[in-house]
Amino acid sequence: MEFELQKIRVGAEGRFSNSIASQNVNSTQIKPKLELHHLMPKFNSDENDISLYLIMLECLAKQAGIFENTWVTHLLGLLPYDVAQLIAREPDEIANNYNEVKKILLKRYKLMQEKFCQKFFMHNKNLGSTWKNFAYELRSFFNEWVNGVKVDSFEKLNDLIIADQIKRKVSQEEKYHFIDDSSKLNSPDDLVEKLDDYDTLRSTFRSK
After folding, report:
1. Cα-based distances in Å from 133 to 23, 43, 53, 74, 136
2. What is the pLDDT of residue 40?
3. Per residue in 21-45, pLDDT tens?
4. What residues contact 71, with CB distance under 8 A and at least 6 apart?
5. ∠ CA 74-75-78 to the nearest 5 degrees?
6. pLDDT (0 to 100) of residue 5
7. Which pLDDT belongs to residue 32?
8. Residue-wise over 110-133: b if at least 16 C-beta within 10 A, else e?
């Protein structure tokens, strides 16, 4: 298994090398001495949170001066064999793109935008971690949340935050009723209209 994983990693390195050569990358961009498998443990789904794991990987890669177009190569050596195979089977334009690989991993471990919202508001600073790292983690959760729901203006961001606060105040019964639509209801006006309609319907039903 280790041998097969190494083959996948070497293959990815070859694809990255060809891609870099074809783009005529500046010769000063040499491969850094440090590699991520020297800086962090392999990913274990029973012990690690995938979103925090990727945040740590990105942070360490930047600190070590590892170029982003080689992050996937480093990441493959840290993933379980079956997951590395899953990525290796993707077309080159996906398998060589860190952001695309990140989407695959988050989807595999079922981290959707509402989960990032929860992580942003509920995340705590780890013992021994720096406040700088804590801020980086919060920023990453926030960016994943707002980018996932395509917030591209202050007005949409304003609506998103207000809608989220309203969702936090609704009853368990209302949460259950709107559980399928909750992540899509990011407009306060649309959300309160549905909630008011539901309250009216519930009151009418009870009066009968």
Report:
1. 33, 19, 13, 21, 5
2. 82
3. 444 444 444 444 556 767 788 888 7
4. 57, 58, 61, 98
5. 105
6. 53
7. 46
8. ebebbbbbebbeeeeeeeeeeeee
